[in-house]
Amino acid sequence: MRRLWLIFSQAVTVALALLFVVVTLKPDWLPGSAQPLARPDIVSIIEAASPTPTLAASAPAGAGLVVASYAAAAQAAAPAVVSISSSRPAQRHPHADDPWFRYFFGQGNGRGTPVVGQGSGVIVSAQGHVLTNHHVIAGASEIEVLLLDGRRTEARVVGTDPETDLAVLKIDLPRLPSIVLATSDSARVGDVVLAIGNPFGLDHTVTSGIVSALNRTGLADSAFANFMQTDAAINPGNSGGALVDVQGRLVGINTAIYADRPGGGNQGIGFAIPVGLAREVMAALIEQGEVSRGWVGVEPRDFTPELAESLGMRSAQGALISGVLQGGPAAQGGLRPGDVVLRVAERPTPDARQLRNAVAALAPGSRARFDVQRKDQAVSVDVTIGKRPPPVAASGRNGQ
Is the pTM higher than 0.90? Predict the structure, then answer.
């Protein structure tokens, strides 16, 4: 009996040893054995090579991570984005005729070298209309446009609008690409966007981010622009370039950045003019050469609860008129300092910005009713709308 038990133990030991060797070195010899798992990074590389990019946002819930690429959007939009070089004549030094100045600084004519600016633009029509920022070409004597395909040409100014910091140029070349404009209200906070432009002279650079916020106001010198905020990297040279969605459609014109110092670079906060406003301004500049806005000659301010209490008024709704231009349309119509404007032509004006926009949207020469709270009385005043004068230099604002 003892001998049989010894033989059985030895047989089991040898069998287990053989099984261990087979499992370790030749697992495929075993019936029903599982195949080795594929490495996730190899699978991702194979999927990323697909010619049709799939966005994670379009994947069904629970489908797992999908590799995303924005190459198609960049390829669709980039040919319509151009580099703009603007040359401004050098200014004569104010002391160029002073003998002491000429003694210490030479006998030249007191002029420096011409100022050359760099920016970006977007071709918006096959006829050669280019949308860019006003500040990119302001004061320029010569403007040159460089396309992605290497062609260069001079551009002429169709019109500019300093109060939205927009300008339209015209170039004459055959077979011009043009960008597709998105609908005015298509952008949402959280949407992926690409910024395409020429930062620091690096032509056709593409950066990505999201729409961080909408309707930012009071930025730069643009009195009527409600900016889109984005964290896509925008740097000097991106001004006038395209902000596009994942389909390559134009959603904004890159305009400004938040910098921690003068001349500073990207800090993760950039601003673009929404395509809806850009479309309206562009149409007016192409058709009329200028943007005509209404004006009545008042200085509005937000009506705060503290102001309402000081004036003995219960509600803090509306825009307070703190000043009225003598002889202006508002004064002639009967508006007074201290009036609180509630509506203009049936359009509510809950703050100073809304009042400014409501008046600007009216056609010069038309008449509009202003619904006003004057102390404890509700008053309606009819005002003949004037034409808004050019903005005051360096401020971009001149009341309303």
Answer: no
d(CA 220, CA 235): 15
- The residue with tokens 């551009």 is 155
Of all helices (H) and strands (E), which one includes residue 259?
none
Task: List, by residue number, the catalytic residues.
Answer: 135, 165, 239
Number of Cβ within 10 Å of residue 231's Cβ equals 19
Q: How far is CA 2 from the centre of its chain?
A: 91
Tell me: the pLDDT tens digits for 187-200?
899 899 999 998 88
CA proximity to 48, closest of 64, 71, 75: 71
The CA dihedral of 371, 375, 377, 382, to the nearest 10 degrees, is -30
Which helix (DSSP H) or strand (DSSP E) does residue 281 occupy?
helix 275-288
294-387 CATH fold:
Pdz3 Domain (2.30.42)
CA–CA distance, 196 with 73 (Å, rounded to integer): 11
Q: Backbone phi, then psi, for 328, in 5-degree steps?
A: -80, 175
Query: Nearest CA to 362 among 304, 278, 293?
Result: 293
What's the CATH class of domain 69-291? mainly beta
Domain limits of the chain? 69-291, 294-387
